[in-house]
Every structure is written in structure tokens, then in C-alpha cells.
Amino acid sequence: MKLVFVSNYINHHQTALCEELNRLAGGSFAFIETEEMSEERLAMGWDSKAGELSYVVKGYAYPYEMRDLIRDADCVIFGGAEDEKLIVPRLEAGKFTIRYSERLYKEGRWKFITPKGLMKKYRDHIRFRKNDAYLLCAGAYVAGDYRLIGAYPKKKFKFGYFPAVYEYADVHEKRRGNDKLNILWAARFIDWKHPEVMVFLARELKKAGIPFNITMIGEGDLFKKTRGFAKHLDVSDKITFTGAKTPEEVRERMLASDIFVVTSDRLEGWGAVVNEAMNSGAVVIAPKQIGAAPYLINNAVNGFLYNATDYRQLFDIIDGLYKDKDKMLEIGSKAYETMVNTWNAKVAAKRLWEFIEDPRHKISDYKEGPMSRA
């Protein structure tokens, strides 16, 4: 069976899944990159050494080869491209196709009623609803967005992004004995990531007399402004700004941190740092508005959900964890188990491949995790 995966470019959030799919397909697998990786992403260490992966095809450089592969494959997983026309001939021919998508209405579902927005959704999705097409939902709000436009009825699956999952003899080894709370944040310093929330949080923790240190990893337009804001609120001694780090360096910091905080709003389609921090055994506190959080986190069991930008709610959660450090380690352990046992590339690829190989494409009855009903 020839399987083709189309997306903008391969990166460390997709490589583990692609490696598994290539193995299951016996090498009859291709990942088509529709564009070159941006300089910003390269500077962040996102280069996954795609040139060393035999199945990666640079479609932007070889457009005719790309179109032939998409046309002739037994199954295409279409992760989106700037040119939606790439997939249209295949869909119009009724060929087996799986769309892999984040939510449609990140800015708000009010866009559903705009004529321009609705026409685009009709062109890209609704007219193919009766064909052999299915939807992998990369986020908890994807199914609801597509339900609004009547696309992929009863053909939606929970999915996501799957950075590498590592197993540890003792996932808490590097954080045991911490004499203060080590809190980590890692993202770009841009408006919808809301780095300012961490500064407000630092002020509240300092006022409460809780011993802590916040490490903020990343760069961006708001880096200097955030650092200046920390000075203004007199918490510069409590926040360490490291600048950009490679994905590997971020993972090392996660292993030593007690708590990992995400502060993005609903513009965060998924948020792969949630996967990575949970795999590292840190207690993840993430806004329920981001795509990954409701799928991966069972509130107060293997992590915590809160309302985006509500730093008072965030403080209350951390205050409770500080008062019960055994509970903190227990929640971190359950987070780790979630990644190792369920939400990982191996499980996702196996379940997806079973669905692809089944000539009836029977909807699975998985109760949770990848390929369960969305």
C-alpha cells in the first residue's frame, strides 16, 4: 500500500509518527514538503535533518513528482498546503483521503457566518462530504468547527502531533530534592502566547512568600518588553530569561522542572510542548482553550486546565501544588504514563494504519487516545 503524507515541512513534531508509518508501510511511504522551512523555525532548531530521511520529497522543488504521488497513492494524509488545489483532483475522483487539520476558527466561530469564510469552507470541505474522506482532528475544537459546516459527518478522529516520547527509569530523578518550585515556560515571545502572564504570576508567588524560580525560554517581538515588565513589577530576581534553546535543550529543562506552564490563547491550534512536558514528568498547567490540553489532560489527575490569561487561577493551582509536593510528583507520574502508554507516535501510527488497511475503513471503538471518535 502506497501512503503519502502532505504537509508544509517535516519537523520534530512529526518525525516520530512518520518513522512509524514508514515502518508499517514497509517503505512505501512518502512525506511531501510543500514549502521550505522558514528561517525563524531553523533558528529555533526545528530542522529535523529531513535530508537524511529517504522518504521526504521536496514537493516545492519537484511539483510534477508531487502531483503524481498524490494522484497515485492508495491513501493520502493531507496536512494542508497553501495551495489547496493539490488535493482537489484526488477528492473529486473519490479516492481514499484523510485530512489532518487544526481548527478552522481559531479567532472565533463568528467567522462561520461570513460569506467569504463559508464559501472557502464549502470549496475545501463540504462538497467532499460524501466521498471517501476522513478527518484527523489535531486539537479538541476541530471536530466542533467542522461540524458547523457539515463536513466529514461521523468521520472524525481524535489525533494531534506526536513529538518523540522517551522512557526513563526514574522520570523524577532530576527534580527530586528541589528546595523551591522550578517553573518552566517555553514559547515564542508573541502576543497570543501571553508571556506577560508569567510576570503577573511571579508577582503573586513572590507576594505569597512561596520559594520559586521561573525560567522563560524563547525569543520574539515581546522579549525585551516582557523583561522590562518583570523589572517594573520587581520580579527580575525570580525570572530567568534564557533566550532561544534547541528542542533538545528544552526537553532537558523540562526534566528538571516541577511545573510547566502554557499561557497561549485559542490561537494555539495544538501546543506540542504539552506532550513534551508531560513526557518529562512535569506537572503541566495549560489553558483549556488550546487544542492539546483537553485531549491530553484529565484535570487534576495528570495535569491542570485553567482559563487562558487568568493568572489568579494559575496562582491558586500552583499554591495548592506547593502545599502538597507528593501530589505534585504523583500528577507528574500520571502525565508521564499518559504519554508512554497512550498519546505517542507508536500508538497513533498503529491505530491509523489499522484504519487505512481495513478495506471497509471501519470506524474504531477506541474509548480514548488517538483514533478514538472526535
Structural class: alpha/beta
Which architecture of the largest domain would the CATH scheme give at its second level?
3-Layer(aba) Sandwich
- Order of strands side by side in the largest beta sheet? 3-2-1-4-5-6-7
**Number of E-type strands:** 13
Ends distance: 26 Å
Binned, the helix content reads 25-40%
What's the order of the H and E elements?
A: EHEHEHEHEHEHEEHEHEHEHEHEHHH
- Rg over C-alpha atoms, rounded to the nearest angstrom: 21 Å
Task: Describe the sheet with the most strands.
Answer: 7 strands, parallel
In round numbers, the mean pLDDT is: 91
So what's the CATH class of the largest domain?
Alpha Beta
Instruction: Bin the strand percentage.
Output: 15-25%
Describe this structure in words.
This protein is α/β, with parallel strands linked by helices and 374 residues long. It folds into 2 domains: 3-162 and 344-357, Rossmann fold (3-Layer(aba) Sandwich), CATH 3.40.50; 181-341, Rossmann fold (3-Layer(aba) Sandwich). It has helices at residues 15-24, 39-43, 63-72, 88-92, 115-124, 142-148, 196-207, 223-232, 247-256, 272-279, 292-296, 311-323, 325-341, 345-357, and strands spanning 3-7, 29-33, 56-58, 75-78, 97-101, 133-137, 156-158, 181-186, 212-217, 239-243, 259-261, 283-287, 304-306. It has a 7-stranded parallel sheet with strand order 3-2-1-4-5-6-7, with helices on both faces. α1 (15-24) crosses α14 and α7 (196-207) crosses α12 (311-323). The longest helix is centred in the C-terminal third of the chain and has 17 residues, at 325-341. The chain is globular and about 65 Å long.
